[in-house]
Amino acid sequence: MTGTQKELTDFFKENIGKCILYSDNITNEGILKSRYRFITDDDLASLEHCSNQLNIFNLFRRKIDEVLYNFQSIISAKQEWELRLIRENKFTTALQEKIFIDINRRLTNFISSLVTLIGDFLEKRFFGKEYGKQSNEYDRFKKQTNEWYDTYFSYRFFSQLRHFSLHVDLPIQEIKIDQDYNYTRNAPMKYNISIMFNKEALLINKKMRKLNTDLQGYNTTFPLHPLLLEIEKVINSLLPTILFITGNRFIEPARTINSIALDKENFPKDKNLGFGKICHIDADFIGIKGNAINIQTVNSINEYLNKSKTK
């Protein structure tokens, strides 16, 4: 047994039956190196309840992060490929095919994750089943999605484009790569990639023809980038919308964790929290039987609360 392991075993034996709260629990040995304090049985029960509630919200946060990762992937595709073309200092038909497939792949992933999250995961599964379709919560979320649909062409467009990209054709039909080389200066070739939708190709599909009135104002080809900038407003409002509609369901658990751990003892606000009771896990082992709180989830709720105070 190493010195650290013996110290930990002695620590557990001396404090068996006590409830403990600690930060940054990577390994059991890490408990002694991190901030910790003993808490009451009531605090432990409160933390268990809060952890269970925030696990639900944590799933929403992760699903929204997934959408954001896909969003960053597609919005950065143009620059990434332009830089790669400069680094490799060559442009071939085969490489153009890779660019075409990759950008369509990124866009399809983004659209699918966004529309599935809002329409299937949140509307149908959470608000529809958790609260019921006759509930105020479901009605308020539906009104919010209708407002997004009425306000943002990008939301209407991507909602229909999801079906098109999964069942009909690739969403992007034209990717143009311009080369600019100034022979009077000693500099590498510059590239500019234009990512364009083709209105005529889209309107072949019945679902896309629902947007015929909107698309009348667009040229035959029109760029992706402005639509991404607009839809970002919807993505950024997803977590605040969930918190606003659900009232105190997730806000109160976050406040409780703040009062028990983050505010009182100034636990690090970038580390997860572990909590539980020191006890016999089995006949031969003493440890902590408990759970963990994802601090990123608590921080996201705290950020919402802080912004709400300034409005």
Please give a structural write-up.
- The protein has 311 residues and is α+β, with helices and mostly antiparallel strands.
- Helix content is 61%, strand content 15%.
- It has a four-stranded antiparallel β-sheet with strand order 2-1-6-7, sandwiched between helices. A three-stranded antiparallel β-sheet has the order 3-4-5.
- The longest helix has 39 residues, at 93-131.
- It is globular.
The helix/strand series, from N terminus to C terminus, equals HEEHHHHHEEHHEHHHEEH
Tally the helices.
12
In terms of DSSP E residues, the strand content is 15-25%
What characteristic shape results from the CA principal axes?
globular
On the 0-100 scale, what is the average pLDDT? 88
Give the strand order of the largest sheet, numbering strands 1, 2, ... along the chain. Answer: 2-1-6-7
Helical/strand content category: alpha+beta
Poorly predicted ranges? none
- Radius of gyration from the CA trace? 26 Å
Question: What distance separates the N and C termini?
Answer: 57 Å
| Strand elements, count | 7
Biggest sheet overview: 4 strands, antiparallel
| Helix proportion range | 55-70%
Describe this protein with a few key phrases.
single chain; 311 residues; alpha+beta; 4-stranded antiparallel beta sheet; 3-stranded antiparallel beta sheet; 12 helices
Secondary structure: elements and pairs:
Blueprint: H1 3-14, E1 19-23, E2 36-39, H2 41-75, H3 77-88, H4 93-131, H5 136-151, H6 153-167, E3 174-180, E4 190-198, H7 199-202, H8 212-215, E5 221-223, H9 225-236, H10 238-246, H11 248-262, E6 273-282, E7 285-293, H12 295-310
Antiparallel strand pairs: 1-2, 1-6, 3-4, 4-5, 6-7
